[in-house]
């Protein structure tokens, strides 16, 4: 249960909005990993495939989830091949 008694808890600064905007333009780990995991569970839409392709480089400033992403992406490729065959 959320407590709405603290008015400062839900406030966002201008900087938060700027970082959200930049984050939507630059590739990121969380989006790519979420889409790979979703693609393993169910087929991705065309839009989701494009977003996954765009976010595949992950964070350009680090490789924090590169190994996990590569493993999950390979699983996704195998599953997609099986889906196309059937």
Gyration radius, rounded: 17 Å
Strand percentage lies at: under 5%
* Helix percentage: 55-70%
Order of helices and strands: HHHH
What structural class do the secondary elements suggest?
Answer: mainly alpha
Question: Uncertain runs with pLDDT below 50, 5 residues or more?
Answer: none
Shape: elongated
Folded structure, characterized:
With 86 residues, the protein is mainly α. The protein has a domain at 28-85. The protein has four helices and no strands. It has helices spanning 14-25, 29-41, 46-55, 66-85. It starts with 13 loop residues before the first helix and ends with a helix. The mean pLDDT is 78.
Short overview:
The protein has 86 residues and is mainly alpha-helical. The chain has helices at residues 14-25, 29-41, 46-55, 66-85.
What distinguishing features does this structure have?
single chain; about 90 residues; mainly alpha; about 65% helix; elongated
Topology at a glance:
Layout: H1 14-25, H2 29-41, H3 46-55, H4 66-85
Helix pairs in contact: 2-3, 2-4
